[in-house]
Design a protein that fits this description.
The chain is an all-alpha fold. The protein has one domain. The protein is built from five helices and no strands. The protein has helices at about 5-20, 25-35, 35-60, 60-70, 70-80. α2 packs antiparallel against α3 and α4 (about 60-70) crosses α5. It is flat and about 40 Å long. The two termini are about 35 Å apart.
Length: about 80
């Protein structure tokens, strides 16, 4: 099936992605710096819940459903989810 053609490049890309902070990391750091450790833990929990929801949506194939059902997409956009 699929395999890693360039293992060194693959490992370097993973390391680069882990080193560079993303928006979730910056939000957690900002929340912790402004409001303290308790708020920082709340930001961590919120980020984890959001990531979990995105992973679940990916597993169930939300993109495929939204492409085949434009009414579902329009209703989710109207509600403000997407």
């Amino acid at each position: 099936m699929f395999g890693v053609q360039n293992y060194t490049g693959f490992v370097m890309a993973i390391i680069a992605f882990q080193i560079v902070p993303g928006p979730g990391t910056l939000a957690i750091l900002s929340s912790t710096a402004r409001y303290g450790p308790r708020a920082g833990m709340g930001a961590v929990f919120g980020t984890l819940v959001g990531d979990l929801l995105f992973m679940i949506a990916a597993v169930v194939g939300l993109a495929a459903v939204l492409v085949t059902r434009p009414l579902v997409l329009a209703s989710l956009q109207w509600v403000g989810i997407l």
